[in-house]
Amino acid sequence: MRKVPLLLLPMLLAGCTVAVEYGDIPHNVLAENPRCNPAQNDSASVGGKDYFIVTSRLPDCRGDTIKLTNHRADRVRFGRFSPPETIKPAKGDKQLVVPLAFQPEDAWWDGLRDAANLRKGRVLLYVHGYRETLQTTARDTVQIGAMSNFDGPIIHYSWPSQGNLLSYAVDETNMYWDERNFRTFLTKLARAEWVKEIVIVSHSLGARLVTPAVEYVDRTSTNADSSNISNIILAAPDVDREDFERDIAEEVLAARRVNNDRRVTVYASLSDRALAVSRAVHGYPRLGSPYCFSPFEAKDLKAKGLPQRCFATKTKYQTEPAKTGFTIIDTTDLSGGGAGHSDYLRSLAVCKDFAAVVNGARTTDDRVATAQAHVFTLRAPVKPTKADIAAVCKRVAD
């Protein structure tokens, strides 16, 4: 009976999506407080908030703390935040809040520039996936920074995911609605002269914002190679695998960009139940799940004594670049829980590899070669304890 909800989920996602309710308060009222639209920078309000945020979510500035709703905003806002805090109100249950303050856009860019200049122009940009809230994504952003010890400013891009299991279709709709906002932001970031290296981390549905935006920047950049977008990490990407192979990889991983240090690392798992559901909904395999769509290919692999796992292929070049631009890490046997969809935050071996990739590593000692030159597995640690995992992954309890 445990499998029944999972078996029903594709039908629920496809036909029983939870509707988005406007609410009892006009949306302009939620955001009319000057704290939502500051005309001047308030140094006191952003003091101690070390993480940068860009969001297309509608804010609610009526209370003592700024909240981000699951609705679309009329414009993109810029701000700073600090790690989530648990508070106990006078009445009611404990709440997880994210200390957040908005800034005028110019002041935000000035602050990012100053922070980047202190760290040789390195910037990390994190884009979340499906079923998320500000609380969960802020937590993950902080974890990524702590786990990798990233030496530079960290930006969290927050789009209006509903944070609801049955709102996949709404999340997908909002993600596509937000494409222009995100690519406009990424274009400005990539064209800033003081940004020397951009590390992009995306999770799940967030990859569908990231990959076309990078492709857009590549096509329109005055810098012919957009070489400062150098390190793209796609964790459990909910992207059509064939679309990635045919269209996206061709532009994003053009030989001249790969030779200028552009690379894409994908973390994929056949144990990822969320992507199995996405495949059932969309009909075709996802980039983050090595499912063999062709039973003949699976049969051939089995006959050769190889795991029945099918991955995205490498881009084909007339002249091979001098460097390796595309790597897949197969985490199938290393699931860290959470439906196998967040191994990069939950599995000790994957966390370790992920942190190294964030910091520029092209390979690690724990990678194990496979029959395909661009695909690797990872050596499993010997029975890691929860304390071992926490020490490496830096994960805060859910």
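(ticket continues) Second input and output from the same batch:
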Amino acid sequence: MGGTIQEETSILFQDKNIYLLDIPHSIALAQEGRSIPQQPAPESSSGTEKSTHRKIRNLLSCSPIKEPFPSTEPKKPAALAKVLDTIPISERRFHSELILPLVRDSLETIRAGYPHDRPWCEARAVPNEPHDSTEPNQHPRKRRRGSDYTRLESAPDAHALTKNEPPIILSTTSPNDFEALSELAIVKNPSSEPAIIRVGSWRRDETISPCEYMIPPKSSFVLCTLPLFQAEADRPSISHDYPIPGLPHHQKFNLILMDPPWPNKSVRRSGHYKTHHYSEMDVLTEGLRDILRVHSHDPEAKQGQCPSETHPGLAIQSEQSIAAIWITNAEKARRAAYEALSDAGFAICEEWIWVKTTCGGQPISALDGLWRKPYEILVIGRKSGLNVDVNINANNAPPLPQMDDLTRVSEAITTRRVIAAVPDLHSRKPNLKSIFENVFFMEAGHLKEYSGLEVFARNLTAGWWAAGNEVLRFNARECWVDLGSERNTDMVECA
């Protein structure tokens, strides 16, 4: 591979398709206004090269996990057999034969090449006062009228947006003031500088500070409740053609990344965010498929036929058409993701496994656990029509619901990558922008221009679009701390 890492990077270690990544740092770097064409680290690189680029802001986080979670696995043979009976044989084989050996070997590769005295994550900015782990601590001098995250629920719904909704263009020379989040629908920051949105600044009460959100350069977002979350009777008739309200048909993307609210009993009980019940899986699958069908770039479209002639600025230089869906370890979620990708014309080409570890490099739970697995999987498809090195063509494959199992699809995937990372706050995923760019959009060492969209996003990414009702969640200023500030935070390292 060759080369050294010259720019700041969140990748602490890389060996071919194996990565060790720091989650808060990955999100922080994704706020920068330039895409960082990171040179691949040398094979077995430990990331010991120091960057000369000083990071000035830290994303508030939680203390890194030091010990694996206590086991909740069934201990008695009868209980174990009962659990196994509920898991399809194809799903057992998928995890035991394809995923588990790869994860185990990848962790060993990191341990062999990464310095033994270094933690598997960077120091984290952690509030030094008791706080709810789902929300960063607020400044002690000012009392807020509820959390920003609660107010995000007032985002416009699908009925409030039309296909001709004009976007709000932000200024970068002064804060952009709004009375409430519901005033924001389609918002753009076309500048190469960050912008600030200030909500509630019209109030005169000095005990209540306005909420500020930092909008990365060249980022755009649609703040709304997606139609697939609405009851069938309330769902707009145009929802299939406009699965993201207000986003026009001609807005196409080379990369669409989705983190859907899959059914999850523990998450439903905690109330962290809304999830779908398994009985609504077909609705969720249909919604994912519609988004991909309408907004993914068609690699067979000629540049002369692109909508850039009638819509200047929308020319797509990259011919890639990539879609990625985070899934849980439930068989129904994997089937739904495969089906949504296939139905939208994508051939499933890669799977990326995020392995959750302690700061000492141990999986947070048993690799072969039944109740809880220490990893999540990102399923990646490439639009058919490209020369794709896969053994299955999305257009020729039989409909997945008619298959006895998913073995044929999963065994045809030619590339799997492992990304180890110490978990951050609940539901935060690692920002994989730099890895996506290096894998799919680099040509002869140069980053090609591409368009990206993250659906169900909980933070913005520079240069990308984002859609959902929580797109601003972790872009609130209170989620960040400047080095040297007086804010009550500590930089916590894993001892």
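Agent notes: The chain has one domain: 1-301+316-495. The two ends are 33 Å apart (CA to CA). Closing as not reproducible unless the customer responds.
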